[in-house]
Amino acid sequence: MTFDLKSHLAAQAGRIETALTSLLKETERDGEISRPERLINAMRHGALNGGKRLRPVLVMDAAGLFGRADDGVVQAGCALELIHCYSLVHDDLPAMDDDDLRRGQPTVHKAYDDATAILAGDALLTLAFDVITDEAVHPEAGIRLRLCRELARASGIGGMAGGQMLDLESEHRDRSEAEIRHLQSMKTGALLRYACRAGAILGDASDADVERLTRFGEIIGLAFQLADDLLDVEASPEAMGKATGKDAEAGKATLVGLMGIDRTRAELQALLEEAHDLMAPYGSKAAALNALADYVVTRSN
Amino acid sequence: MTFDLKSHLAAQAGRIETALTSLLKETERDGEISRPERLINAMRHGALNGGKRLRPVLVMDAAGLFGRADDGVVQAGCALELIHCYSLVHDDLPAMDDDDLRRGQPTVHKAYDDATAILAGDALLTLAFDVITDEAVHPEAGIRLRLCRELARASGIGGMAGGQMLDLESEHRDRSEAEIRHLQSMKTGALLRYACRAGAILGDASDADVERLTRFGEIIGLAFQLADDLLDVEASPEAMGKATGKDAEAGKATLVGLMGIDRTRAELQALLEEAHDLMAPYGSKAAALNALADYVVTRSN
């Protein structure tokens, strides 16, 4: 029996989509004064755009390994996805990567303007820390606080935002393989690591299981980045729904550039095997996470 | 005996400065991978710049009313100040207010570049939600969560960020007095309201006292904005350390513009009286908050 990843992803992403849509309603939540129309529309443009929802699906599937599948897990996934979406809105700005298209649609600053995109990103980021404190996320306040704090550390200067800074500094500058691995562990690795780790914490997993899922998340992060670099070299803009070849154009060193395509493919295969080994103790309960690892390595967009 | 506000402000702001400096060290915190040098320097530039620290001082003095003066209150104040500082870094960007000077110094995007300023703001915002979860803030996890969530709602689309959006939309557009009051309650009011309210919550104040301090914070917000509008009309750029007359130049309607200087001054006086009335039950313990209310109304920069 093979696992039907496509149906699984559609179902999990559907739950995320429903929850995000509800979080991004026009009407204000308790304690909010109002939700200005232009800003909530820009936030919706940035967050409800048919993304694959990989990060929240990882949260849900990691929690599922430990028996949790309720809507509180979806809320935690949404918090993480809001962080991811804000980072895309800001990364696309002219002052940053200057991208006009994202998943085949105009980026937020193209559909609105730069100021609105800056504010929409800020507000999506802020909303994440509202959502992660939701009572449904976990009955224990201490666990919700831990998830909140770890989310901040994975997203901020010591994680994603710091990695973005290092990446911008990489333009037209030589980077060693170690430097690139370091910046990627921050820029893309930290959130994917958090996704799997948070899922285990949500499921009240043992410390050993939390560490196991943390390592699984690190592998997903490494594999995701290597696969992304390969796609940037090999795929067409049409398949990706955004510009490709951007790294080479920006003069950014990549692991694929330093290691070559064959060594990159070999490392991806080794990562995939380690991922499967890590999931072995969970047997068939890990079918979704195993299939996601395969997907991250073999995806074509 | 008159209250020595100048010494008081210097002492309270000094505690905030020390704590912020510690939060913005070059070395990473637990769970952070590294703190890239350029980004932490830009964050320090945006946050350690001799600000008056009005918001955190309000947190500390409101908590002081209920007997709390420990470093946990300073941490909570820092979280709020990090939000305020991020908003200034982003507001100064060319795509927003396009300001070159802030407190007489180059703004972050002038000292670094636009991309770094965007990331520095993002990282300051994110750090705020790490800091507010600090165990020292309050022994009860549930209270820390409440403070975290209320901070998110005061700062995000339903508060400060939303108000900033409405303010940008006000350029070259007529606004009624009610519309301006609404946007100001979001843009500047929400954080000042939060400051006083959070202080009461930190001090385990009764619900009635929390509501009293919340109203006090609303008055501070209204008075702060009216005084700011008056300064924008009347003060010199030298006294303010930044450009003045910007509202008129941007074609933004202000309350002073609609109400005239005399009616504005009269409203300020009435607000001040209400503030003092609210503090009356606390007697001499409210000396600092009473003096702060006076200061907000009479400040010259």
Automatic annotation (TrEMBL), chains A, B:
GO terms for biological process: terpenoid biosynthetic process. Keywords: Isoprene biosynthesis, Magnesium, Metal-binding, Transferase. One of its GO terms (cellular component) is cytoplasm. GO terms for molecular function: metal ion binding; prenyltransferase activity. InterPro entries: Isoprenoid_synthase_dom_sf (IPR008949), Polyprenyl_synt (IPR000092), Polyprenyl_synt_CS (IPR033749), Prenyl_diphosphate_synthase (IPR053378). SUPFAM superfamilies: Terpenoid synthases (SSF48576). It holds the Pfam family polyprenyl_synt. Its cofactor is Mg(2+). Belongs to the FPP/GGPP synthase family. This is Probable farnesyl diphosphate synthase.
